[in-house]
């Protein structure tokens, strides 16, 4: 959009608009302003800005910019912010040449395929960078794989029929090439690659407690198996390792209402350990740290970060207490920090 306009002229007109707005606000504060036809309110500011720059500016960025100059006229924002771009403190040390400024606008592609129906919600979304995938799972049982190939999206989807249990989370098993999802009482393993997506998969059940979250333990050297972590509503964290042999040795006949093959949960060795005194809200494995993290609204054992071996022994775990608990967390490798949200 910016290529079609005289950007230098448009920028000068925009800066004049900002100056007039600041002068008007200053006069209003001192009681010297009298309303007239040239009054600049938000609607006029937004319309003028869109006229100058077109679709290159977004509503929320214009709104934020206008709010800043109205609330504090002496500390006016940089014009870059009208495009949603922000300069750091170090930018003042760089060359002041306007020609060196580059505006980067990300390209987004909207997927119009509807993966959920009315009164359904997405409960899990996982990106698989190596395979250019995105996996989603809805509360009522729709699991979908968006595969980006040749700049277009191929969509694999199936509906898992369940009685009353809802899907609570999902992830991808990179070695076995299965999608894993958990419901309140079962573990679903779906082979998305098959043509008949409705009939290729396994269900592990029954699980005694209500499963609330799941994640994959990334170990690229174990090509014949995958390990997953799960959290439940009693504060337990589970460790489950699955191999290709399990699909052959432990399967039973499919039930009448489903083509999925069933695996008895009791035939697996599933170590578990109670790490929290409340629901396990999220669980994640950080391959860079070789540690897993789990969080809970428990105000005493709010966040745990330790080796998965701690799930198979009784050694103390590294845990942190946060008032009112932790609902979410993430790790930044570049900054080497873990951030939690309560």
Automatic annotation (TrEMBL):
Keywords: Repeat. It comes from the Eukaryota. InterPro entries: WD-EF-hand_domain (IPR051242), WD40/YVTN_repeat-like_dom_sf (IPR015943), WD40_repeat_dom_sf (IPR036322). The keyword Membrane does not apply. PANTHER family: WD REPEAT-CONTAINING PROTEIN 64, WD40 REPEAT DOMAIN 95. This is WDR64 protein.
């Amino acid at each position: 959009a910016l290529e079609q306009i005289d950007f230098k002229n448009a920028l000068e007109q925009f800066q004049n608009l900002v100056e007039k707005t600041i002068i008007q606000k200053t006069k209003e504060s001192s009681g010297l302003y009298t309303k007239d036809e040239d009054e600049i309110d938000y609607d006029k500011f937004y319309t003028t800005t869109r006229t100058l720059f077109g679709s290159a500016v977004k509503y929320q960025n214009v709104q934020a910019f206008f709010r800043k100059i109205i609330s504090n006229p002496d500390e006016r924002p940089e014009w870059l912010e009208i495009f949603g771009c922000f300069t750091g403190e170090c930018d003042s040390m760089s060359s002041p040449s306007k020609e060196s400024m580059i505006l980067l606008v990300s390209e987004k592609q909207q997927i119009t395929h509807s993966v959920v129906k009315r009164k359904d919600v997405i409960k899990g979304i996982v990106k698989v960078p190596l395979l250019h995938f995105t996996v989603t799972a809805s509360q009522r049982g729709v699991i979908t794989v968006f595969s980006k190939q040749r700049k277009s999206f191929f969509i694999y989807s199936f509906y898992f029929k369940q009685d009353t249990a809802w899907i609570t989370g999902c992830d991808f098993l990179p070695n076995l090439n299965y999608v894993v999802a958990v419901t309140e009482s079962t573990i679903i393993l779906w082979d998305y690659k098959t043509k008949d997506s409705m009939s290729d998969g396994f269900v592990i059940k029954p699980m005694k407690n209500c499963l609330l979250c799941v994640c994959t333990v990334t170990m690229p050297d174990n090509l014949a198996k995958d390990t997953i972590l799960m959290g439940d509503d009693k504060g337990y964290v589970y460790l489950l390792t699955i191999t290709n042999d399990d699909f052959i040795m432990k399967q039973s006949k499919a039930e009448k209402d489903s083509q999925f093959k069933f695996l008895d949960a009791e035939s697996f060795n599933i170590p578990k350990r109670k790490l929290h005194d409340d629901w396990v809200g999220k669980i994640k494995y950080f391959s860079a740290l070789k540690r897993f993290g789990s969080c809970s609204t428990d105000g005493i054992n709010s966040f745990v970060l330790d080796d998965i071996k701690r799930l198979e022994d009784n050694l103390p775990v590294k845990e942190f207490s946060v008032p009112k608990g932790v609902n979410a967390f993430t790790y930044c490798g570049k900054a080497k920090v873990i951030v939690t949200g309560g």
